[in-house]
Each structure stands twice: as structure tokens, then as C-alpha cells.
Amino acid sequence: VDWKRSGEYEDIIYETAEGMAKITINRPERHNAFRPTTLFELREAFNRAQEDTEVGVIIFTGAGEKAFCSGGDQKIRGDDGYVDDKTHGIGRLNVLDLQVQIRRCPKPVIAMVAGYAIGGGHVLHVCCDLTIAADNAKFGQTGPKVGSFDGGYGSWLLAETVGLKRAREIWYLCRQYDAQTALQWGLVNAVVPLERLEEETVQWARELLEKSPLALRMLKGALNAVTDGAAGMQQFAGDATLIYYMSEEAQEGRDAFKEKRKPDFSKFPRRP
Ligand code: 1HA
């Protein structure tokens, strides 16, 4: 794939090609742990990919072969969250905003995981629509070991994915699980040799790009709606309005208003 790099970022790389956007956390010296700046940049990049009408699928990954993401950067963890030169001395937990953004993005997001997906990095792959793992991938949570926990998507979306007993085990014991175990548990969609990771992920992306974008959008919304409660329904309802706007029936209402006449909905069926 002939990736075209764009944007000025410190901690991430943004690339596009053939309807795909690839967003890479680029802090390999810390196993791609994130700091607040990383997350500000990731949010900007996901927003770009969402707004770009050429982009139909987003691939989310980490630089190098050792890690997808090792969660919050513990070396810059302050007493009230993660702190760097962009946070004005106030600690942040702004990975939570990125989780919501990935869920709400109407385009499929594929996590492409080589090496560690650990802690808050593990939660990020759980929030993605699909996960393709290399055979060297390692999955797990560390919260109770390092003094943290994610009681949001990190807990109940994980439970929805692998079941409650396994979600409890993953969080309570803080073990690491290999790619084959993750596959058996339904935590990932496929496992491939490390050297074939991008090829396989791009293949999945290309298959998605052949499908109806609106159907994919509605399915993502539908599958998220139950877990996301009122917020999920709000998004799904918004998509229903989008599709209604595209109908002649809705356009008759708009046109009548503009033409200062009574709307005539009589030609539209009262569907059983
Ligand atoms: O839980 C949350 C949140 C919850 C709610 C709301 C917001 C949240 C935001 C964040 C988080 C979290 O992510 S908490 C969990 C944070 N992450 C971790 O506890 C994982 C820490 N890392 C490790 O356990 C290990 O590094 C490893 C199992 C991933 C890999 O071990 P390995 O192969 O032995 O490599 P290691 O030598 O440990 O790591 C290579 C380098 O990367 C080291 O650098 P060095 O000290 O030698 O200079 C290591 O310190 C660094 N590194 C790795 N992970 C992190 C890190 N540095 C900072 N933060 C890291 N997370």
C-alpha cells in the first residue's frame, strides 16, 4: 500500500491510501504508552478520518513490532491523572474521550495489534470494531497492579466481548494472554504471522470498502446502541433521521415550507 503521510504530529502518524486511514501511536520507546498530547493528537486524527469523505475504514495501530499500546504513560502520571506540557498542570484521563470517539465514529475502526495491548491500550482495542492480531500479540489489564481501573468500556464492553467470568479474571488477576487464547475467547477476529499483519488487516479493510457504507454505519450504531444506552440510541436515532431526510416524503415537508404552501403527504403510503 502506498501510504501518504500528512499532518504535523509529535506522538502519532496519520496516513491515508485507497479509502483507508491509518493512525499509528508513535512512542515505541515506551511501548506506545499514551500521554495527554498523544490523545489530543489521536482525537484530531480520528476526527480528520471521520470527516474525510474519501475514507471508509480506519486502521488503528502502534509503531514497531513490540506493542500496539501499553496504556497510560506511568512515568508522567501525576497525582490526579496524566500530566504533560499541554495539560497546564492539571491531570487528565483523556483516553476516555478517545474511547467514545472510536465508538461513535460511523466508519469501522480496525485495531491492528502487534505485541502488547495492555492496560488502557487493551481497552482501546476492545473499543475498536474489529481486531487483527499478530502471533506475538499479548493482551491484558494491569489496573489492580499499578493503581488504576477502567470501570467504563474497559469493564462492561470487555464483559460483553468475552463474558463476565473472563472479564473478571482479566481484570482481577492482571495476567497476560497470548494471541491464540484471545482468538478462542472472541477477543480478536484473526491471528496472523507478524510479517503478514498489515497485509491481512488491509485485506479486511478492502472487503469492508466493497460494502454499503450506510449499511455498515447502521450496523455499527445498532451493535453499539444497547451497551451505549441513551447515548447509543441518540446516535442511532440520528442515523434514522439522516435516512429519512434522504426520502421524498421528508423533502416534501421542507419544500412546502420554503414554497409557503401546505405540505401534501397524500402520495406517501401509510405503511402497514
Ligand atoms: O487504567 C487507565 C485508565 C483508567 C481510567 C481512565 C483513564 C485511564 C488511563 C490509563 C489507564 C492505564 O493505562 S493504567 C495501565 C498502565 N499500563 C501499564 O500498567 C503497563 C505498564 N507496562 C508493562 O507492564 C510492561 O512494560 C509491559 C508488560 C507492557 C512490557 O514488558 P517488557 O516487555 O518487559 O518491557 P519493559 O522493559 O517493561 O518496557 C520497555 C520500555 O517501555 C521501558 O522503558 P525503560 O524504563 O526501560 O526506559 C518501560 O518502562 C516502558 N514502558 C512500557 N510501558 C509503559 C512504559 N513507560 C511508561 N508507561 C507505560 N505504560
TrEMBL record:
GO CC terms, sorted: cytosol
UniProt GO MF annotations: 1,4-dihydroxy-2-naphthoyl-CoA synthase activity
Coiled coil: none
Positions of the record's site feature: Important for catalysis: 82, 245
Positions bound to hydrogencarbonate: 141-143
The EC number(s) this enzyme carries: 4.1.3.36
Superkingdom, natural source: Bacteria
Cofactor(s) listed: hydrogencarbonate
Binding site for substrate: 70-74, 82, 116-120, 142, 148, 245, 260
Claim: ATP-binding is one of the keywords in the record: no
Pathway field: Quinol/quinone metabolism; 1,4-dihydroxy-2-naphthoate biosynthesis; 1,4-dihydroxy-2-naphthoate from chorismate: step 6/7; Quinol/quinone metabolism; menaquinone biosynthesis
Function: Converts o-succinylbenzoyl-CoA (OSB-CoA) to 1,4-dihydroxy-2-naphthoyl-CoA (DHNA-CoA).
HAMAP family xrefs: MenB (MF_01934)
Protein name in the entry: 1,4-dihydroxy-2-naphthoyl-CoA synthase
Gene: menB
